[in-house]
Amino acid sequence: MECNGISQVLLSQCYIRPAFNPAKYPNPDLFPKGKSYTAIWDTGATNSVITRKVADELGLHIVSFATVNHAGGKSNQVPVYRVNIELPNQVGFVGIGVREGELAGADVLIGMDIITRGDFAVSNYNGHTTFTFRVPSTERIDFVPTPPPSKPIVKAKEPGRNDLCPCGSGKKYKNCHGKA
Question: CA separation (Å) from 126 to 2, 5, 133?
Fold first, then answer.
């Protein structure tokens, strides 16, 4: 997903449906209906979040309650729903437990419960922010090369008293640089 200019917020579209097992449907046209929403990607969030609007529009049912720690403190008895999340790159997640929460500028928050299932990278090359996500992870991504192992420092051999001085004078070391 690419942004015009440098972006301080990572946004994409995602498609949310009530949770279901796709293997039980012989035809994708029979899948439960869902809707496209704007999602914000947040590596600081443990779990994914939907707004009350999403829950109402999709007719979702609360499956449990959770305690949630957030920037504003702590909330108890937060509703949890089960949904299927489909990302723009044809990556989908079935039966994800999402918490209900208030979000600014988006209706869905993609948290680390999803991000840790694949490879997530952000670059700001040439004044444009691009972020990518793939599942499954296919290789290690690291933009900082691993330094080669350091070689031990070997102390140079000291010349003996009667060796020629290493300065090239032609004198014995004891009569040149070896004088005490």
Answer: 12, 9, 20
